[in-house]
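If you are new to this repository, start here. Below is one unmodified record pulled from the training split, so you can see the exact layout before writing a loader.
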Amino acid sequence: MRFAGLRRGPRRAGRRRFRLRALTVIVLALFLAGLAAARAIPVTMRLAEISATDAVTVAVNDAIRQKMTDGSLAYEELVTLEKDRSGCVTALVTNVARTNLLQAEISGAIIENLSSYDAETVYVPVGNLLGVRLFSAYGPAVPIRILSFSNVNTSFTNVFTSAGINQTRHQIMLNVVVSVTLLMPGCSENIDIPVEVQVAETVIVGSVPGTYAEF
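And here is the target side for that same chain:
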């Protein structure tokens, strides 16, 4: 009987060690799952923001490129240079009606270009959610669906810079701000994505005129 008791002792000790190891594995798994869940939202939002910024930049450039191709953004279409009898520029006059129409048309084109971006799926490797560089880019990719709805605001601005002796470069810039709402289960984030593109320029010989109709 003593020998039987000795045999049961090691078995019980082995079972206790097995249970302890199993409990340790479970606790570690729960800890990693909680850490991944805590990291998932900010990491995914950051990836979604990068993806949205890329999409907005492409949409804006495509819309502006179309207007440049048909000549709508030619400098003379936007600004008229008034000169005196000697040929010196005395005033810059903005074609307000033209610029307002272009803003509306470009905004519409950007919204149309972004229509295909209303539903986007971001794939995040599980290792990225842990926040540890060693595990970054490892593990299966977790698909996370993100929705975005965009509101577009456009405005023209101008920049004057020296282009040499008695010369001034006048650049017309189009500033676009796209408001995007990123939606995920249980959270949302609103971001503004600015894009600035030069649409026209000219070099004014002589001093910059004292009269200028601001955009």
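Two things worth knowing about this chain: The mean pLDDT is 77. The first strand starts at residue 79 and ends at 83.
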